[in-house]
Amino acid sequence: MNHSVGRYVFGLATIASGICICVWHQISNLTQTETIFVVNHAVLAYAAGAIEILGGAALLWPGTARGGAIALGALYLLFALLGVPGIAAHPSVYNGYGNFFELLSFVAAALILYAASGPASPRATSFARIGYYAFGLCVLSFGLEQLFYLAETATLVPKWIPPGQMFWAIATTAAFVLAAIALFTRLLARLAAQLTALMVAGFGAIVWVPIILADSHTYFNWSETTETFAIAGTALIVAEYLRQARPSPRR
Asked: Distance between CA 205 and CA 83 in Å, rounded?
């Protein structure tokens, strides 16, 4: 993946996320828990932001991409696990699961990039496969989260897009579920990953960029935008993984 579009999109999105964390001293895009840390909250925010900035920058060059994947994968896995106590405390609230799987999707991207940035080996193949199926679970979670919060999802759809907000909320929810099925069955999986990337990038361009233009001083708007484009980058990484994993035709 030396010339991976997904790697560049994911890397730039993590850099932007890290900058937002350092500017606002908030990490709510990484965790929604009220975990008590042994260090000052601002110190934690700067540390997490620095890892995202440096890790994302490392992804932009093939020679340092593996190190960036390790740093980012470890960071996102840590914060995903920090959300588990919240899920256990409120198992009937899907928001905690949704946040966990959003972070897990970034871990999946890191696993695939780690495997693709080094020499081929059975271990690297296993890491990439784990990342691939983890992303499939995440895509299913994206669909479930929209389903459980369908009314809220519909409000994010711009009113000027026909035929209506609820139509697109339902359509995109179904698209996530169908994409997850395609990824798990490997039927049109690469196309599903590409279309997922296009759809999620559309969310970023049509939904979140206008929100930022209307209110650029709110951290939540920026964090949701960077997270959305990072998910789009992850979907592209998965599509590129599937292209490289496809067996060469026999001569």
From this structure: 28
Query: pTM of the prediction?
Result: 0.93
Reading the block at residue 199, the tokens are 């759809």
Output the 3-class SS for 82-124: HCHHHHHHCCCCHHHHHHHHHHHHHHHHHHHHHHHCCCCCHHH
Q: What angle do CA 220, 222, 226 make, to 5 degrees?
A: 120
Rounded distance between C-alpha atoms, residue 87 and residue 24, angstroms? 26
pLDDT score at 1 = 59
Residue 78 Rama label (left phi>0; alpha psi -120 to 50; beta): alpha
Phi and psi torsions of 149, nearest 5°: -120, 50
- In angstroms, the CA 207 to CA 28 distance is 20
Residue 158: left if φ>0, alpha if ψ -120 to 50, beta else—which one?
beta
Q: What per-residue confidence (pLDDT) applies to 25?
A: 86
How many angstroms separate the CA atoms of 106 and 72, rounded?
A: 8
One-letter identity of residue 246: R
The answer to whether the bond into 163 is cis (omega within 30° of 0) is: yes
CB burial of 147-167 (b: ≥16 within 10 Å; e: otherwise) equals bebeeebbebbeeeeeeebee
